[in-house]
């Protein structure tokens, strides 16, 4: 027992020699993060966990939360997260000894000397001289322990732990992507509804214009050119309706699939025409450092770098000796009553050291270092792309809002011009070409205003996602927080 204790103490002391670099979180300056965005924005970050509620559209909120709970891409991410957790459990198991037990029973039968045995017709063997036999019982326990003198086991656990965290953040990234896709397609569905309403309103007016032109042609006040122009314009407007209906159907079908339903399941819910959702005019973006903490894809890249750094230590440990300890205890007896009378055991500790491998192990170290360099480059790239997303979304939102303001002016002017042109055409004060141009301008202004409002809503959604909204960034996602909780808590 004294030898065992000494050996275990010695192995524990040696296990403190962990090779390879220790991971150190990167400072914002090392990642190229500026102190502020180049576009003007508020410096106080807002809580964006449930950003869809800021649109004040209950149907939008219902669809986003339904997708967060049922979407199949999210379900796949949860499965990958479960796999990563089990890989971590397997790595942690390597820190502990492995124990196994065995038990056996054997019965030996011998024929006595001089005896005679024969076989009956039914196959039974008969010993005419009588026989004897012996029982044998055995129990055994064996243990093995890979000490990991230079930290290869602990570095493996460290890498698995980082991989598990990265899988959680990957899950959150998928969650945000699904939420944004639901919101974007919902906005598109409302846009196509608005454009269909615009087209049908124009068709009603153009039907009246066509009828008036026909009366004027019959009265000899104008040539048939007016009627043909009216008929052509009406047909062109009518031709846009099937295309808009097809786009509307595609958006609604996509919403059905995103919520893990049949493509047409949501048609009754969305069929009632509602305005394009309008969110707040401004969003508090905070400073770039806030985005680093909020975006799950950035945090996943950071954990991937930590895992790659830990694997350098795993590769370097292969260059040094490996210590394995094994032991066993066994007992044999002829009866269960005295199974513990005689116990034997053994303990073995062995060191192995690679002597020649053609440079393979050192090549593995260099490969691990290259992988860590690549992970760092990917980390920086993710950070810079995230900052780009934020700035582009801020500018896109402002652009759409300005276009919406200008289209409101254009729509008011086009509507007034169209009313005047209709009145003047009826009284013969203007020709149909002028009326036709004003009707085209009115439809264009209506569609432009709808498109600008849709673009503003889409840009606002993109900004929320670029800032990392839609999940609880205060915790690392794991299996206890992956069922409709990260985005809807």
What would you say this structure looks like, in words?
The model has no long low-confidence stretch (mean pLDDT 85). The protein starts with a helix and ends in a 23-residue tail after the last helix. A hairpin with a 5-residue loop joins strand 2 and strand 3. Helix 3 runs antiparallel to helix 4, helix 4 runs antiparallel to helix 5 and helix 4 packs antiparallel against helix 10. It has 489 residues and is of the alpha+beta class. The strands form two sheets. The protein has a four-stranded antiparallel sheet. It contains ten helices and six strands; from the N terminus they run H-H-H-E-E-E-E-H-H-H-H-H-E-E-H-H. It has a domain of 332 residues: Up-down Bundle (Outer membrane efflux proteins (OEP)). Helix content is 58%, strand content 12%.
Distance between the termini: 55 Å
What general form does the structure show?
A: elongated
The CATH C-level name of the domain at 20-95 and 158-318 and 372-466 is Mainly Alpha
**Low-confidence segments, ≥5 residues, pLDDT <50?**
none
Number of strand elements:
6
Q: Taking Cα atoms only, what radius of gyration do you get, to the nearest Å?
A: 38 Å
CATH superfamily descriptor of the domain at 20-95 and 158-318 and 372-466: Outer membrane efflux proteins (OEP)
Derived from helix and strand composition plus strand pairing, the structural class reads alpha+beta
Tell me the series of helices and strands, N- to C-terminal: HHHEEEEHHHHHEEHH
**Strand order across the biggest sheet?**
1-4-5-6
Q: On the 0-100 scale, what is the average pLDDT?
A: 85
Strand proportion: 5-15%
CATH fold assignment of the domain at 20-95 and 158-318 and 372-466: Outer membrane efflux proteins (OEP)
Profile the largest sheet. Answer: 4 strands, antiparallel
């Amino acid at each position: 027992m004294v030898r065992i204790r000494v050996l275990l103490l010695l192995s524990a002391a040696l296990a403190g020699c962990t090779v390879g670099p220790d991971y150190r979180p990167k400072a914002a300056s090392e990642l190229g993060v500026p102190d502020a965005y180049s576009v003007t924005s508020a410096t106080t970050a807002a809580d964006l966990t449930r950003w869809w509620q800021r649109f004040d559209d209950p149907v939008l909120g219902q669809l986003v939360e339904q997708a967060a709970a049922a979407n199949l891409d999210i379900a796949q991410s949860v499965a990958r997260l479960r796999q990563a957790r089990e890989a971590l459990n397997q790595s942690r198991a390597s820190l502990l000894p492995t124990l196994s037990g065995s038990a056996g029973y054997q019965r030996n039968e011998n024929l006595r000397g001089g005896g005679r045995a024969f076989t009956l017709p039914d196959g039974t063997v008969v010993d005419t001289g009588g026989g004897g036999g012996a029982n044998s019982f055995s129990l055994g326990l064996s243990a093995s322990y890979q000490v990991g003198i230079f930290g290869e086991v602990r570095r493996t656990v460290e890498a698995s732990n980082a991989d598990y965290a990265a899988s959680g953040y990957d899950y959150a990234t998928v969650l945000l992507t699904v939420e944004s896709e639901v919101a974007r397609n919902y906005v598109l569905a409302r846009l196509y509804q608005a454009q269909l309403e615009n087209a049908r309103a124009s068709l009603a007016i153009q039907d009246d214009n066509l009828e008036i032109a026909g009366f004027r042609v019959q009265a000899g006040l104008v040539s048939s050119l007016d009627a043909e122009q009216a008929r052509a314009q009406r047909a062109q407007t009518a031709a846009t309706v099937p295309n808009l209906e097809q786009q509307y159907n595609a958006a609604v079908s996509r919403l059905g699939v995103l919520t893990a339903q049949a493509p047409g399941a949501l048609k009754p819910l969305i069929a009632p025409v509602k305005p394009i959702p309008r969110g707040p005019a401004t969003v508090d973006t905070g400073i770039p450092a806030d985005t680093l903490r909020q975006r799950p894809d950035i945090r996943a890249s950071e954990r991937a770098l930590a895992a790659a750094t830990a694997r350098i230590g795993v590769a370097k440990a292969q260059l040094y000796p490996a210590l394995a300890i094994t032991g066993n205890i066994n007992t044999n007896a002829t009866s269960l009553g005295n199974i513990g009378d005689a116990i034997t055991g053994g303990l073995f500790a062995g060191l192995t050291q690679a002597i020649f491998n053609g440079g393979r192990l050192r090549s593995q170290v260099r490969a691990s270092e290259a992988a860590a360099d690549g992970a760092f480059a990917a980390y920086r790239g993710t950070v810079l792309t995230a900052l780009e997303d934020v700035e582009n979304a801020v500018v896109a939102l402002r652009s759409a809002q300005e276009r919406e303001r200008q289209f409101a002016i254009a729509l008011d002017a086009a509507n007034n011009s169209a009313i005047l042109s209709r009145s003047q055409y009826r009284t013969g004060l203007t020709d149909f070409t002028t009326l036709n141009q004003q009707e085209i301008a009115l439809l264009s202004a209506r569609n432009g205003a709808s498109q600008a409002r849709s673009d503003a809503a889409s840009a606002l959604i993109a900004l929320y996602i670029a800032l990392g909204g839609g999940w609880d960034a205060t915790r690392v996602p794991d299996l206890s927080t992956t069922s409709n909780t990260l985005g809807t808590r």
